[in-house]
Amino acid sequence: MSLLETLNPEQLAAVTLPRASALILAGAGSGKTKVLTARIAWLIQTGQVGPSGVLAVTFTNKAAKEMLTRISAMLPINTRSMWVGTFHGLCNRMLRAHWKEAGLPQAFQILDTQDQLSAIKRMYKVLGIDAEKFPPKQLAHFVGAAKEQGLRPKDVDAYDEYHRMMVRLYEAYEMQCQREGVVDFSELLLRSFELLGANPALRAHYQARFKYILVDEFQDTNALQYNWLKRLAGEQGCIFAVGDDDQSIYAFRGARVANMAQFELDFNVQNRIKLEQNYRSVGNVLTAANALISNNKSRLGKELWTQAGEGEPIRVYEATSDQDEAAFVIERIKKLVLEEGFSRSDIAVLYRSNAQSRVIEQGLFNAGIAYRVYGGLRFFERAEIKHALAYLRLLDNADDDNSFSRVVNFPVRGIGSRTIEQLQDTATAQGTSLFRAIVGMQGRSQASLQKFADLIDRMRFETRGMPLPELVDKVIHDSGLIAHFEKDKDGEDRVENLKELVNAAASFSVSEGYYQDTPATMLDEEKLTTPLADFLSHASLEAGDNAAAAGQDAVQLMTVHSAKGLEFHCVFVTGLEEGLFPHENSLSTSVSGSDGGAVDGVEEERRLMYVAITRAREQLYLSHAQQRMLHGQIRYHLRSRFLDELPENVLKWLTPKRAHIASQGWSGLDNQIGWGAQSIHGNRAALSYTSKAPRPYPIGTGVNHARFGDGVVVAYEGEGEEQRIQINFGAQGMKWLMLSLAKLTKS
DNA sequence: GCGTTAGTTATTTTT
DNA sequence: TAACTAACGC
């Protein structure tokens, strides 16, 4: 069978496994998606299951789309009845089909993170809660964490006054969502989970239907996602889980690598297959990656190998400053493009945190090299788009107070905060939505509110039965949004974006509507969604591309996190400094995690570094800077421990490797740079600039301390016996020591 | 209601 | 540094 011909033995074994649960440990670049899609194709082609018996779940829409595309290329089947999507997308699909049983209105809306926050703030106003004492973000986090544990307010144990309050607020928030007919992201999962739990017939139906369940990026599943899968699969279920514990980098948002081991127990997994042959990178890159990750203790164990040659050595550069680092990267990029024939888009510059992109961007801009930064606002998150969506939502569900509040006075129609307050009071008193409370208002404010209500009602009436793109077009005009931004002198882009929304609706209409025409079973038939409802779900669940628009062939700039799953011919990993990468905030979290599971912060940072390294196909550049501007201050950092964990024989130092960071090679000039900048910014060190106290170790030099080890001198203060010295000891942290007492040696 | 200003804060991110 | 938020004043 041609389908199987291009597979290596391990891939083949995975693809053709008999019907039983299996864990596939798929290393970076080992053909994970290929295995996943070939497995589905093989199952269908050999008649073991029909398309409607397959459910495949991913984390991102991009991955889901990719999977569908590949399956369609392999098999001439209609994929509509197959459930392929994100956890949230599939849960939404289920809830739309069974909204009644799930206790939701048919036109329930989905709150994204922004919406959730404004919902909480609105609730605070009504209840008179102090946002200083209970930050909305904290409540959102609390609610999310509880839902991930499968806990409703009544199930949450509160130990102190603060937590008792959080539980009460969780309860109030839940009631508000229910009243307004909205669900947040975690609610989609929890509702779907509870729906399956409370409804045996439905559960049996889905368990019988989905004979084969496949999970991508299994190491990223959280507790609720895992339990949802378990419940959906049932006793006889068959889950094909693909993941890589070494690429688990989302513990901070609830991912539990431990689910992999738990899965093997819960599902009595007899088949664990490792995919270790790498088809992406040259040997040196893999040697470096393997060596680095071997420093992690908690691993399932796996080592990448390749048939490709060693390739070039990994180049390492020690820059004097962040500026210098950027200059190095840009010089190298020029060389790669002009002399070595790479496209700009073959090149990626990776960093640990977004703030680091600025210096690189400036450098690229000045050099006239096209670049593209990932990680900004996405299309459906833009304010003007949110406004348009709010109008659209009100057509579908007038009780959506979030949307109502967003646009009741936008564009301005003389409805001030005073009026809104009165309306809110009326609504609260009557226990209804803002929209419904309008009729109970008095006087002038009633009139202006009624005009708004009439506008919504009229748009709803006039767009009935209209094709989606036309509907959207009508709403952005009739709402006054277009006119408003046309008047605004910097509203051009916003008008453009609103028109783009019409295009988005048009392309959505042709590509989607997947579950309208093909009810796979009797139970699915209840669902009758409208194109508008589907489009609104789509807008909430798929916020769109987050890359800044730029020239076609552009250098790619992104965080290491967003680089996961991608590959580039040439990769620069920048900012390899203690405190940045590994990030200082990760050093303290040795044991945490919402479920109490052990989560080692540094181990996760190391996995992140592993992800960074394994993005490179041919050339890998690693760099760090002696000093860099951070939060408006110059900071000195030690070289990252991760650099020292790489085997020397695959590295080529472009600057001399120093035994200890900053031990030699500090020219007088370098010192002056550090000095000048410090005095400009007037920090503590600058105070001592004018003092005549002797400085046995100039700022920037390396010193050794018996207890704290190697560090870099950062600042001085005081004089004589009182004179203190500040040293950055990397992992040991930043310390102020009495100079007369500290036993320091030059390192 | 809107623009200004002072204060605050600072990984990582998808849905 | 710079981006964001909340509060203030017209």
From TrEMBL:
Transmembrane segments: none annotated. It holds the Pfam family UvrD-helicase. GO terms for molecular function: helicase activity. Residues 283-565 form the UvrD-like helicase C-terminal domain. Keywords: ATP-binding, DNA-binding, Helicase, Hydrolase, Isomerase, Nucleotide-binding. It catalyses: ATP + H2O = ADP + phosphate + H(+); Couples ATP hydrolysis with the unwinding of duplex DNA by translocating in the 3'-5' direction. Residues 5-282 form the UvrD-like helicase ATP-binding domain. Its EC number is 5.6.2.4. It is an enzyme of class 5 (isomerase). It comes from the Bacteria. Belongs to the helicase family. UvrD subfamily. PANTHER family: ATP-DEPENDENT DNA HELICASE SRS2 (PTHR11070:SF2), UVRD / RECB / PCRA DNA HELICASE FAMILY MEMBER (PTHR11070). This is DNA 3'-5' helicase. It comes from Limnobacter litoralis.
